[in-house]
């Protein structure tokens, strides 16, 4: 637009002058951007205007100029890449939010030495009666040392403070103080599907194993203190902002154990009422008690219906469990669990109840054996006329799903959602099933080639990290966090497809494709200005991308670097001893371009500990150099109870 068409006498804003007479000015304009809209009708743009929370102009400076009034905030993207806000289609965001400020996150930490140093510091600043807990988002393979911490290392780092470290759905490592706090002794029996590892005298060592079910790990974690209700609100807000930090503006909650409706949904509900959600959440409902699933579902059907809610918080059906007995645990360090005879009946009863009441659902299923059995149940219901066309339903995970099952899912109108769990558990999978089977676990391309809707996500926070860029990198490169190649090119997707799986696919899963998922006039004004160009960085740098500005509904919900003061500040972190107050969340590598003053990631977190004298001495003391010349054998896999370290 030439300057002669601009009104005179107004201050330039981001290089464009506002019109005096604009009728309904935008609240936000982003310009000078390389915008990937995701909309085939207009794939690229350089400027957008957002008015009343929705995109009102997508184009260039000339297109947005008539929307700029004196109060319009104009963000100059300085030529940076802009994408639609990301949507994690399988995130335990509600539970993650309730606990975020209680957790020390090892997500992104590159050495065990650093991880233990963080633990030591946090133990020192944790008041008596509280725990230090590291709950998922990491694996030994990401550390330079390529191993898990030992109980004795936890004892050394935290002699008096209970420490609970959850490693995937495989194991938990407790220090001495935590064992005392939870009351495990030589007389404590192993629960079904779990093992309390013992020493030669029969005393618990501090290691708990999912064998294969994670119930023991979770019920032990649940013995720790929780946040006060008012701190749960703050915790959720800080967690949502941490998601905004990576460009997330939507998530589909998968519910989960210890996430009761409506009690544990109170925080997000209150934030929604106050207009303080910064991630749009579609939630699911997950029966909590074996044997009472139908009672739960019946009660909820009377309380809420799929689609209820608004643009920020809405019900999207039941799941990811509909009943306990059909659930298979994705612990690849253990053999596949055998479902009991009840599984079929329980699923049948729950699914019929839901379908009869017009409810869709999502269903957790890791293995093809489970999926085949589930499909038998669904097909029988369909044959009875009880599975209406247009029911919105999907399988979650589906790592070993077969082509014939994909065809059957397609025939029943289902979808799938995949997560980067293999990025964290891939080594264990390869150890058990071999590299050839790992190459299509999950068969991402076959799912798409079958014509299924395939949405992407993380399954955070207890297995994978919530950082979406790890998952996008996994889709594109097919590699684990330890850089093991899982997938050949034939089972990977290109960057634009991966992004579509992380944006518009999620919008389709919640029936919101008409209002979000792409940067299109009339859709929600959700976008992210990225720290580096997703479409041109080398593969190795995809997982280092962050947002510099994230916008949800026209509001700046996260801003860093050049933009750092334009997002409204959050309330102080409470409690003040929260690990997040000291360390933040995901630990970015040092060379990520963060210029924010006081950025918590500014510390040099990469210690090059792999070759450190400390680590060498540890391995030598352990006898590694005599026994196993390579890496310690529990890397990313089973914690062998006979391992001398445990
Ligand atoms: Zn699941």
Can you describe what's shown?
- The protein is of the alpha/beta class and 646 residues long.
- It is built from 21 helices and 23 strands.
- A 6-stranded mixed sheet has the order 3-2-7-21-22-23, covered by helices on one side. A 5-stranded mixed sheet has the order 9-10-11-13-12, sandwiched between helices.
- The radius of gyration is 25 Å and the shape is globular.
- The N and C termini lie far apart (69 Å).
- The structure holds zinc ion.
- Zinc ion is lined by residues 320, 364, 396-397.
Key terms:
17% strand; disordered C terminus; 21 helices; 646 residues; binds zinc ion; 5-stranded mixed sheet; 23 strands; disordered N terminus; 28% helix
Question: What is the gyration radius calculated from CA atoms?
Answer: 25 Å
How much helical structure, as a percent, in the residues? 25-40%
User: Bound small molecules, which ones?
Assistant: zinc ion
Whole-number mean pLDDT: 90
Strand element count:
23
Profile the largest sheet.
Answer: 6 strands, mixed
How would you describe the shape?
A: globular
Q: Give start-end ranges of low-pLDDT stretches.
A: 1-13, 591-611, 624-646
Alpha-beta classification: alpha/beta
- Strand share of the residues? 15-25%
Number of H- or I-type helical stretches = 21
**End-to-end span in angstroms?**
69 Å
| Strand order in space, largest sheet | 3-2-7-21-22-23
Topology:
Elements: E1 28-31, E2 34-36, E3 44-45, E4 47-51, E5 54-59, H1 61-64, E6 73-76, E7 81-84, E8 86-91, H2 93-99, H3 112-124, E9 132-135, H4 151-157, E10 163-167, E11 171-174, H5 176-182, E12 194-198, E13 204-210, H6 215-221, H7 229-244, E14 248-253, H8 266-274, E15 280-285, H9 293-301, E16 313-318, H10 342-356, E17 361-365, H11 368-383, E18 393-397, H12 403-411, E19 415-419, H13 421-433, H14 435-438, H15 444-449, E20 454-457, H16 468-477, H17 495-501, H18 504-509, E21 527-530, E22 547-552, E23 555-559, H19 579-583, H20 613-622, H21 624-627
Parallel strand pairs: 1-6, 2-7, 8-14, 9-10, 14-15, 15-16, 17-18, 18-19, 19-20
Antiparallel strand pairs: 1-4, 2-3, 4-5, 7-21, 10-11, 11-13, 12-13, 21-22, 22-23
Helix pairs in contact: 2-7, 3-4, 7-8, 9-10, 10-11
Bound molecules: zinc ion.
Zinc ion is lined by residues 320, 364, 396-397.
């Amino acid at each position: 637009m030439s300057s002669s068409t601009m009104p005179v006498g107004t201050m330039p804003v981001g290089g464009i002058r506002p019109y005096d007479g604009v009728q309904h000015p935008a609240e936000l304009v982003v310009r000078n951007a390389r915008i990937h809209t995701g909309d085939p009708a207009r794939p690229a743009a350089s400027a957008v205007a957002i008015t009343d929370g929705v995109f009102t102009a997508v184009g260039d400076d000339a297109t947005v100029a008539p929307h700029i009034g004196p109060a319009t905030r104009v963000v100059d993207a300085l030529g940076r890449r802009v994408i639609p806000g990301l949507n994690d289609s399988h995130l335990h965001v509600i539970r993650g939010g309730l606990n975020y400020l209680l957790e020390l996150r090892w997500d992104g930490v590159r050495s065990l030495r650093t991880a233990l140093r963080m633990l030591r510091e946090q133990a020192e600043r944790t008041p008596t009666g509280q725990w230090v807990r590291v709950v998922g988002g990491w694996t030994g393979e990401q550390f330079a040392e390529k191993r898990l911490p030992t109980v004795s290392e936890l004892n050394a780092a935290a002699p008096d403070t209970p420490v609970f470290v959850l490693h995937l759905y495989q194991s938990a490592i407790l220090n001495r103080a935590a064992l005392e706090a939870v009351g495990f002794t030589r007389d404590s029996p192993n629960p079904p599907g779990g093992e309390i590892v013992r020493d030669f005298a029969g005393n618990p060592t501090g290691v708990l194993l999912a064998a294969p079910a994670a119930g023991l790990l979770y019920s032990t974690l649940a013995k720790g203190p929780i946040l006060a209700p008012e701190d749960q609100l703050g915790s959720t807000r800080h967690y949502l902002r941490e998601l905004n930090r990576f460009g997330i503006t939507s998530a589909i909650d998968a519910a989960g154990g210890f996430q009761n409706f409506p009690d544990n949904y109170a925080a997000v509900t209150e934030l929604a009422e106050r207009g303080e959600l910064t991630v749009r959440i579609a939630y699911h409902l997950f029966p909590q008690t074996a044997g009472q699933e139908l009672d739960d579902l019946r009660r909820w059907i009377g309380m809420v219906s799929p689609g209820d809610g608004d643009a920020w918080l809405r019900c999207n059906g039941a799941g990811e469990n509909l009943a306990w007995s059909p659930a298979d645990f994705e612990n690849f360090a253990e053999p596949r669990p055998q479902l009991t005879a009840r599984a079929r009946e329980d699923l049948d009863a729950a699914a019929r109840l839901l379908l009869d009441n017009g409810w869709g659902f999502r269903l957790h299923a890791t293995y093809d054996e489970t999926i085949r059995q589930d499909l038998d149940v669904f097909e029988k219901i369909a044959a009875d006329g009880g599975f209406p066309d247009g029911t919105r339903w999907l399988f979650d995970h589906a790592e070993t799903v077969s082509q014939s099952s994909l065809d059957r899912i397609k025939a029943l109108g289902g979808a799938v959602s995949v997560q980067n769990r293999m990025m964290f558990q891939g080594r264990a999978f390869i150890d058990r099933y071999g590299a050839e089977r790992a190459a299509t676990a999950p068969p991402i391309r076959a799912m798409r080639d079958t014509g299924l809707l395939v949405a992407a996500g993380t399954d955070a926070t207890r297995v994978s990290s919530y950082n979406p860029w790890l998952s996008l990198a996994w889709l594109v490169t097919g590699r684990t966090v330890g850089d093991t190649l899982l997938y050949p090119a034939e089972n990977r997707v290109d960057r634009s497809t991966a992004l579509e799986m992380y944006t518009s696919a999620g919008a389709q899963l919640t029936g919101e494709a008409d209002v979000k998922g792409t940067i299109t006039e009339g859709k929600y004004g959700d976008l992210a200005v990225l720290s580096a160009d997703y479409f041109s960085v080398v593969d190795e740098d995809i997982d280092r991308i962050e947002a510099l500005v994230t916008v949800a509904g026209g509001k700046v919900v996260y801003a860093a670097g050049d933009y750092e003061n334009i997002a409204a500040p959050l309330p102080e972190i409470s409690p003040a001893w929260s690990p997040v107050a000291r360390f933040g969340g995901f630990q970015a590598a040092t060379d990520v371009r963060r210029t924010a003053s006081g950025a918590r990631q500014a510390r040099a977190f990469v210690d090059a500990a792999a070759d450190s004298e400390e680590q060498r001495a540890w391995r030598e003391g352990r006898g590694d150099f005599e026994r196993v010349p390579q890496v310690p054998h529990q890397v990313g896999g089973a914690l062998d109870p006979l391992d001398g370290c445990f």
